[in-house]
Amino acid sequence: MGQKIINLENRSGAFQHILQRVLRMVPDRDRDDRRLRRLIAFRLGVDGESATSEYLMRGIRDYVRASGVADFYDFLVGRGASVPPRPPEQDPPGAA
Asked: What percent of the chain has pLDDT over 90?
């Protein structure tokens, strides 16, 4: 089964501008990691800029607190398994 990889070079100029703005939050040593760039590009496409920025801020905060983790991408991907799932949205009381 072939993997679908986001090709960052073929994205529009506006997307590149937003991606570069979000990448400023990433630690300097990890900015050139293609896997991380693709993850952020995917999150931007699905969630938008503000949600992706919040995701990265939480990830960076947890990354700084964690010790012995060498790679920010691996930390973000591994952390996803430990994040509790969101509760399902319920109808407000009295809704028909």
From this structure: 18
